[in-house]
């Protein structure tokens, strides 16, 4: 956590404060719906009330009669647009309704209230068709996908079935996770305005570069006719990783009315509109020798996908990374259903997959009578089991040991159900974490000005992580100047293109380009005699060909989570007493914002374990838990003593900063650590999340 660069005090790794913090807490920071352009109108979507079928008629007369209503867009309004690659953006094309909540009309009015009233006054008639929302692996349309989350859908080494059948100790268990929703603080919103054939959008997105290219394709425009501004973004957790209907509808309505238009999705509409974490059913089979060496690991995932866009929650993939085994099976089975499309949610694949794997490992430890930390250490692989590649760095054992030391794991009584405190049963649990350390090509520009300051520009997005701050640290470090001499510009499509804030690869990707531009600028300055020209000197960097290249190493961050819970035997309520995470994620670039990312992930894992629950109602094909009154995210009172620590990891194979991503690993394994603690407390193995009181009693 100390600074790493000599005399200039740039302190890569220092706990620098967020640059935009004051703007945010004073309300000066503007979000996508807060760009009050002159004449700005508001639009409110009309969600489909059937799960499958066709719109047969739309009666807009009552809506249009309301004073202040400008237009009601109906199916066909988007008929001339280009085909989006992402089918969820193909709204208002035709009468087909692929799932409930699909946008079937859009009311546009002078005020938000009028737009909402108009949307409610629109009458839609449907021809419903039978729909199907049941997650059944035997579904006639179920299939094994070629690809899951960019990985092969199936991976098989050795003879896993035979190895499992022959194993002396066996665990064969199935875990279930319900659909989960992203629910960022700022719901999805877009403000659009046209100036002739030039389009400007203010978009709440994790990646403005993609928003521009998608809009260019759909509206038949050259990219340089489109400006995308994403100055501040109130979270996304994956749901803003790709453009959502809000920005398409805003652009469409603005073109139709000739006015700037904002579409700010009501929170209730998010679950059907912006993706969710798909439900998973995961069967884990572990075979082992009596001394606790894995001889077979089989991880089979069944998960739904929508009929609009294939998305497969790649929950079996972390089993290709974690433990040494001579026989490995990791497969997915996708069931296409008439449901709102699942998509990315913080640590897609790893978060649900490591819940199941790390719970099963705990079950195996219990069956063997082996300490669960020691069992993991004993099965540490020499190379990545799935690929056979060496790890660029892997300090999982160190995370487990350091976590055990800090948590006070030594001497733990392994017996379940024996620690009582009045009506409470107490328990502790552990689970490992992993998340890939990836990068994507990025560009950046750096300019030295005659007054001794620097401006660094890249179209990165700050979704609340502190991207501006850490990029300034990367720049100051490469330039060897104090942090306060560096200005950072992000969140605007006029800036050099950059990839999205997602996959825990934003900082590593943007930072690489920023580093390269600044390192070159530093050497240009060193060779530059005398004063700079009035407009300074600029360098540009493009990491294409370097970042994102398939290399000889398996690159992942690792971690270990420890949890203590109290289970109330009278009310069934579970209270978390302690959560502790230790991570090995390369070099930590900002101790303050990194801690916030780690603990934020852990809190989200706590929600996944204990409170967050959504149901796909088979009758309606929709989620009843559509607001924060019924979909329970953890609040402060639920969050205990929570600690995040890290191990200094020096990995030369990653990027010039030596950093791995940290945005997602905090959620990975947290739910398993809590579930394992609940087993230790109660002696009962609950295999379906969340662990709400009705399940515990
Ligand atoms: Mo994250 S789910 O990759 O935005």
Low-confidence stretches: 1-9
Round the mean pLDDT to the nearest integer and report it. Answer: 96
Q: β content, as a range?
A: 15-25%
CA distance, first residue to last residue: 44 Å
Question: What is the topology, as strand order, of the major beta sheet?
Answer: 3-5-1-14-11-12-13
State the fourth-level CATH superfamily of the domain at 21-30 and 439-542.
Aldehyde oxidase/xanthine dehydrogenase, molybdopterin binding domain
**Annotated CATH architecture of the domain at 21-30 and 439-542:** 2-Layer Sandwich
CATH fold descriptor of the domain at 21-30 and 439-542: Aldehyde Oxidoreductase, domain 4
Helical proportion, percent range: 10-25%
Oligomerization? single chain
Number of helices: 15
The distinct ligands, each listed once, are: dioxothiomolybdenum(VI) ion
CA gyration radius, whole angstroms:
26 Å
Shape designation: globular
Biggest sheet architecture: 7 strands, mixed
Features of the shown structure:
697 residues; alpha+beta; Aldehyde Oxidoreductase, domain 4; seven-stranded mixed sheet; five-stranded mixed sheet; 15 helices; binds dioxothiomolybdenum(VI) ion; oxidoreductase; Xanthine dehydrogenase family protein molybdopterin-binding subunit
What does it look like?
This protein is an alpha+beta fold. The chain has a domain at about 20-30 and about 440-540: 2-Layer Sandwich (Aldehyde Oxidoreductase, domain 4), CATH 3.30.365. Helix content is about 25%, strand content about 25%. A hairpin with a 5-residue loop joins strand 15 and strand 16 (about 295-305). It is globular. The structure holds dioxothiomolybdenum(VI) ion. Dioxothiomolybdenum(VI) ion binds near residues 241 and 344. Dioxothiomolybdenum(VI) ion (MOS) binds near residues 238, 345 and 348.
